[in-house]
Automatic annotation (TrEMBL):
InterPro entries linked: Rrp9-like (IPR039241), WD40/YVTN_repeat-like_dom_sf (IPR015943), WD40_PAC1 (IPR020472), WD40_repeat_CS (IPR019775), WD40_repeat_dom_sf (IPR036322), WD40_rpt (IPR001680)
CDD domains assigned to the protein according to its UniProt record, in alphabetical order: WD40
Lineage, highest ranks first: Eukaryota, Metazoa, Ecdysozoa, Nematoda, Chromadorea
A single Gene Ontology CC term: small-subunit processome
MF terms in GO: U3 snoRNA binding
Each WD repeat, start to end: 49-90, 98-139, 140-181, 279-320
One Pfam family here: Beta-prop_WDR75_1st
Name of protein: WD_REPEATS_REGION domain-containing protein
Localization in the cell: Nucleus
Cited PANTHER family: U3 SMALL NUCLEOLAR RNA INTERACTING PROTEIN 2 (PTHR19865), U3 SMALL NUCLEOLAR RNA-INTERACTING PROTEIN 2 (PTHR19865:SF0)
Amino acid sequence: MAEQQNEEGESYDNEVITHRLRDDALSKVATLHRKVAEEVRLSGTAIQYKAHRYSTVAVVISHDGRYVVSCSKDATVAKYDLEEGKIVASIKYVKGNCTFHRGQIFCLAISANDRYLVTGGSDAIIRVWNFSNLQHVKNLTGHMNAITGLVFRLNTQQLYSCSKDRYVKLWDLEQLGYVDTLFGHVDAVVDIDALSRQIFIKERLITAGSQDRTVRLWKVPEDSHLIFNGYASCFSIDCLALINEDHFVSGSADGSLCIWSIFKKKPVCTELEAHGRGADNQANWIVSVAARRYTDLIASGSCDGFVRLWKVADDYKSITNILSYEQSGFINRLRFSDDGEEVACAVGQEHKFGRWWKIAEAKNVITVFSLTYDTKE
């Protein structure tokens, strides 16, 4: 009897291990969509630090979850060690040295296996750095105006960039060289995102065209793209993030938060005034969005004093605000860690792309707050 129970116990353990290994494999190749939003909680722990003199514009978390890298309008980059609780490396402009940015830095990204850090800004040059020590590797030139977004294709060294010059460019960091240019937007391209699509051997990315009021899905191998139009009264589309291969979220200056399907030309869900109205009775615009990829959890940032976490419905036709994290200032960029347990916020007194108004009581900081999940096995 005891032997039978042991065999049954071992069989159950093997099934559990097999199930977890399968889920892990599926999540890595982007076929598993997890429901985690109902289980998420604010852990109550947060780290906040000041790394820049002027507004923090962008932030990214390393793939191993240990480091947070941020950039600012003051032309600096800072690498923060979450384990040691301190800044361990930085990049600052040195007059006469062409390896450093001259002017504001708007975006950054980290390649697969935390090999490279790339940065871009108002000087229209992409600068490649060795992530481990922030030593300069190479400059990538070709854009003719400020670079506003950078993203790597998931688990690769393929880099995509977007710019106020209206172009999207492809780069290969294995060769440290230029690959292609994508044309289509008629206004500044202000945000970009990409996933893998490796199962279907596709290469696709999405971009936000600001005041041309479109999102474009680029089918790179086919050299074509699809156009998604904002709703009739949409003023602009300023930020976006892929939820999975077929759905994405966008935010606009009119305060609307939209969920899209790549099979529909219009949003399948629109949450008007997602961050309420300001003192001037105007809707607070959506400055940043993020998605915990392949789950039903997304986040949005504005200037209303809160980072908001949302649950996306199973049919993607509605979203529900489930949690709010208090944070004064412009939430210029949001990032989930790969495991979804941390959210990094680039916070500034000013909007990332302008100085239309200033929140005097806010601080130019980086905030990293933690999440826990009531996981049901």
